[in-house]
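User: Before I run my own analysis I want an independent prediction to cross-check against. Here's the chain; please return only the structure tokens and, at the end, one sentence I can use as a sanity check.
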Amino acid sequence: MRLRQQWTINVIMVIVSWTTALFLGKQNIKRFLPASIFAVVFEAVNVLYAKKRKWWVFYNKPKSYITGEMSFNIGPFVVASMWILKWTYGNLKKFLMLNAVINAFFAFIVVRILERLKVARLKNINNFQFFLYFFFKAFFLYGFQALFDKIRK
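Assistant: Structure tokens:
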């Protein structure tokens, strides 16, 4: 895939994600955005480690965070975090189940699509390890939200 095509996909992914955020409602965005931003920053730090270990590769150059992972983090990852919190916050079991389903979908289905489109592929980890890579962050997201709510009240 050409770099221009990848940029187009990245921009569309971010725009579509944030368009769905309009349906969250102002109060929910205000309530859950700080935890989602925390999750994105935490993910950006994790990406540094993962890239060093070459857990995945993006096909196009330059192979930087901006041309690769950033659009996933500022688009679907942050908005999905807010939606998941909106639907499940207050019920940890439901939260973890929904996170598991969404992370499994990404790790097993979306990764295959990205490979077929020649956007990115897993290199030194398998799909299940990639699922775990995302799933463990759910605990931090929920914990940060609980702490944020406690401080705010």
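Sanity check: Residues 21 and 79 are 6 Å apart (CA to CA).
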